[in-house]
Structure to design on (886 residues):
């Protein structure tokens, strides 16, 4: 590497980092250079080694080889605490907040030494407002939206005055407006000289925000570039290493009879911090792909469980599958009617991690695929079924007897989606189909869903990825606070319009009740 | 610094080899222990492990001893697979002995081939009834089944004690707290001449095979596994957790009840205040030693039964303390758990990056 051009010592430099996990090399010979005041993108597919690399930087993991230089000096970061003392801050993808504590109390937990709660609250107010991230230190975390929770994590870092802030996929949980605000904050931080290491696979964001990008693939650095000089498409190809395939829509479709009708569905969430569903009505016709957009935590989990039958409904007519009232039916009976489901969580919900692919194929296909006779498992049939899923959906695995946990996220998702599609459903409900899935697998999954709808099945896609909604669905609705918006057309709806619906501005016949940054207190919140 | 580092995957050979390794290490450590106590180690080990089963009669006693332990453990393992922790096999065994034995007393001196099946059914029903209490409380009110099943054990033992001290006491028994000796039609037929090995031993073998088939070949067995491994996935697949709770508790209770009936209609031959020296509790260890696999449990049950017999032998032949049985069972479990850790992890003496950059 020739970096003689820089006069100032880089904020962070990595040289030849290697990290090996049993059975896989997560990082190999990774070098990285982040200048002060630079917003540096770390770009790569899932499994490219981004998370491992930042965990090494932040002291969560240790590298097997290689060195790390901080302001030009070699350092060993033995723990996140040591990292914070150096001046590193990190906002993880999954927040670590206590829901039953206030904002200030959560931030106080990360502070070393003596604590002055009054002074801390003032600091929080001051820092959060000056960076455009308004936060009330006295609010309880469970009453905050996901975007506000992220602000706590960011303020928690800023309060330590970091020189390098690591953000791991920060925008996946935000509305477009919140994303714009976050970018302003990050730009301002960079102007003040703080370096930002920004991890993402959303190319448009990187083009809009970052000064440099380091692209990882399979644990290696494949390229560094200036995103402002590159197109998103070019970077995608560097990231994936192949021509990007865009899924093709079939010929213009005529939608048929309703395969799923949801009528005035209300459901109290089983989770104390969940979101109750309020009077939801929509339908999906055969041959149609219907999207449910929205920021996570607005009732998607509850909606899926009401549709699969994991939550049984009091009114059997509130969910109708292929003309049959199904609200009272369990998932097994709903599958028998011709429905199939893919939950958001792959390991532990859609598949049993420690069981083999054969057994996981049996998990949902045991009845519809005729894999059980007289209570006995039909061994050959289940093996053939699993092998067919693997072959038809190009699942990369050592074989049908590999445990589900050994597959990468994308391959396991292809397996689960394939398992459902091979059951030839007339209705499929799929939640976050490409969440945490590499671009190649995502394209394959989108294609499979389009093919399925082309064969006349109704497809319901619950997704918080707007790109996915735009590229995949025929029409969609936005879920917010457990309510559904009216149906929208992806060809005409603007991102701003959707963003407003996602943020709680309901247009149309309903009264305008703008919900500002904070969520209104629900009647249920005061319950003992 | 010694660190444990995860291996890529556990070697399938070693998963099955470690119980043997643990047994081998127990023998070696036991030898050292005998030597330290001033006993000749080879002689001690011979008396403990070989002498009890050096005769055919000894072998039959081993099978007899292992029967209630294996029968209870097979049922418990089914529940443990589903994350349902029935700790009360001892109580269910006692209830089975009570109801099964009660039939023998109720039809005293009635000579009919139907009596034994009736006793067996009563025994199973007794165990099931006792296990259905934690099952119902768990399903209805989400009460912890560990506490309920454990506490019911003491209730069961006191209930039996009250009966044999009172209404069921042998009228010609000189006021000893024991029932009448069962008549021939209420005793299990011996299947091996001039030993005490009864037909229950064979039925236990059949139960092992049946449990194996259920776990590996049937939908209900699959449901049990999925409910235990990933409850969310079970819900998604449409498996009812409540149904599985009932199933595993009724099966384990029924098997324990049958084990109790086998004891009173077999080696004991009457109802006494104490039926079992803790078989229901030992079965918990055996279930894990056998890796919750019916066939593994069969061998683990034989090994633990041998430690009971061996302990008695070294007490009698070499004057060693009674505690030696417990020490051997403890060592066996210790070595097994230790080798389990080493299958999944390897030892690293020093973390790799330390001393590298400074």
């Amino acid at each position: 590497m020739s970096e003689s051009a820089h006069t100032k010592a880089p904020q962070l430099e990595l040289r030849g980092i290697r990290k090996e996990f049993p059975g896989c090399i997560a990082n190999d010979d990774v070098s990285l250079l982040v200048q002060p005041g630079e917003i540096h993108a770390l770009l790569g597919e899932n499994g490219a080694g981004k998370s491992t690399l930042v965990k090494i930087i932040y002291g969560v993991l240790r590298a097997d080889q290689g060195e790390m230089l901080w302001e030009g000096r070699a350092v060993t970061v033995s723990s996140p605490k040591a990292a914070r003392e150096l001046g590193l801050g990190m906002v993880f993808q999954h927040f670590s907040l206590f829901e039953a504590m206030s904002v200030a109390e959560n931030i106080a937990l990360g502070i070393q030494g003596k604590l002055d709660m009054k002074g801390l609250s003032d600091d929080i107010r001051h820092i959060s407002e000056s960076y455009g991230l308004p936060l009330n230190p006295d609010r309880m975390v469970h009453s905050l939206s996901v975007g506000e929770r992220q602000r706590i994590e960011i303020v928690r870092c800023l309060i330590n005055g970091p020189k390098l802030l690591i953000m791991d996929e920060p925008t996946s949980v935000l509305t477009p407006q919140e994303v714009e605000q976050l970018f302003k904050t990050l730009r301002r931080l960079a102007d003040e000289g703080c370096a930002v290491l920004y991890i993402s696979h959303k190319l448009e964001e990187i083009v809009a925000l970052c000064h440099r990008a380091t692209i990882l693939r399979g644990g290696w650095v494949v390229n560094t570039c200036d995103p402002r000089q590159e197109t998103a498409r070019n970077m995608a190809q560097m990231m994936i290493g192949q021509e990007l395939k865009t899924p093709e829509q079939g010929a213009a479709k005529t939608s048929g009879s309703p395969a799923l009708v949801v009528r005035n569905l209300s459901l109290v969430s089983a989770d104390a911090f969940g979101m109750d569903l309020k009077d939801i009505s929509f339908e999906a016709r055969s041959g149609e792909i219907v999207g449910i957009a929205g920021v996570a935590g607005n009732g998607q989990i509850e909606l899926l469980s009401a549709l699969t039958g994991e939550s049984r409904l009091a009114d059997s007519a509130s969910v109708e599958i292929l003309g049959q009232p199904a609200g009272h039916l369990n998932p097994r009976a709903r599958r028998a009617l011709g429905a199939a489901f893919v939950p958001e969580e792959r390991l532990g919900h859609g598949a049993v991690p420690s069981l083999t692919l054969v057994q996981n194929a049996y998990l949902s296909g045991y009845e519809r695929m005729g894999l059980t006779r007289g209570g006995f498992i039909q061994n050959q049939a289940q093996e053939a079924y699993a092998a067919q899923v693997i072959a038809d959906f190009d699942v990369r695995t050592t074989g049908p007897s590999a445990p589900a946990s050994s597959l990468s996220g994308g391959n396991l998702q292809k397996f689960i989606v394939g398992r459902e599609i091979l059951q030839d459903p007339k209705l499929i409900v799929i939640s976050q189909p490409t969440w945490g899935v590499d671009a190649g697998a995502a394209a394959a999954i989108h294609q499979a869903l389009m093919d399925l709808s082309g064969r006349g099945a109704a497809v319901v896609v619950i997704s918080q990825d707007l790109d996915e909604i735009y590229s995949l669905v025929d029409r969609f609705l936005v879920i917010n606070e457990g309510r559904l918006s009216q149906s929208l057309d992806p060809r005409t709806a603007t991102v701003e319009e959707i963003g407003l619906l996602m943020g709680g501005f309901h247009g149309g016949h309903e009264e305008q009740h703008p919900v500002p940054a904070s969520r209104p207190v629900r009647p249920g919140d005061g319950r003992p | 610094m010694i660190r444990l580092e995860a291996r890529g995957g556990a070697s399938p050979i070693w998963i099955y080899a470690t119980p043997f390794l643990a047994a081998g290490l127990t023998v070696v450590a036991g030898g050292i222990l005998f030597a330290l106590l001033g006993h000749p180690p080879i002689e001690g080990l011979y008396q403990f492990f070989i002498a009890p089963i050096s005769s055919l009669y000894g072998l039959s006693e081993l099978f007899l001893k292992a029967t209630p332990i294996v029968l209870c453990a097979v049922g418990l393992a089914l529940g443990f697979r589903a994350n349902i922790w029935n700790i009360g096999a001892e109580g269910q065994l006692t209830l089975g002995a009570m109801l099964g034995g009660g039939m023998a007393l109720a039809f005293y001196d009635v000579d009919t081939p139907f009596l034994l099946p009736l006793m067996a059914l009563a025994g199973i029903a007794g165990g099931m009834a006792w296990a259905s209490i934690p099952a119902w409380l768990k399903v209805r009110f989400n009460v912890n089944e560990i506490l309920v099943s454990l506490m019911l054990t003491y209730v069961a033992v006191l209930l039996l004690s009250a009966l044999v001290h009172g209404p069921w006491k042998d009228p010609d028994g000189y006021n000893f707290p024991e029932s009448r000796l069962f008549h021939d039609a209420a005793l299990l037929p011996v299947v091996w001449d001039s030993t005490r090995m009864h037909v229950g031993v064979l039925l236990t073998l059949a139960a092992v095979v049946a449990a194996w088939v259920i776990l590996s070949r049937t939908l209900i067995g699959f449901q049990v596994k999925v409910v235990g491994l990933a409850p969310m996935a079970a819900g998604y697949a449409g498996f009812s957790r409540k149904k599985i709770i009932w199933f595993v508790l009724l099966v384990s209770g029924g098997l324990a009840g049958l084990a109790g009936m086998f004891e009173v209609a077999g080696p004991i031959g009457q109802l006494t205040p104490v039926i079992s020296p803790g078989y229901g509790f030992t079965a918990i260890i055996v279930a894990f030693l056998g890796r919750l696999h019916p066939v593994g449990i069969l061998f683990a049950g034989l090994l633990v039964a041998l430690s009971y017999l061996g302990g008695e032998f070294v007490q009698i032949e070499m004057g060693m303390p009674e505690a030696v049985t417990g020490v051997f069972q403890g060592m066996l479990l210790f070595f097994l758990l230790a080798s389990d850790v080493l299958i999944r992890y390897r030892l690293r003496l020093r973390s790799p990056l330390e001393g590298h950059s400074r």
Remarks:
- The radius of gyration of chain B is 23 Å.
- Chain B touches chain A through 28 residues (CB under 8 Å).
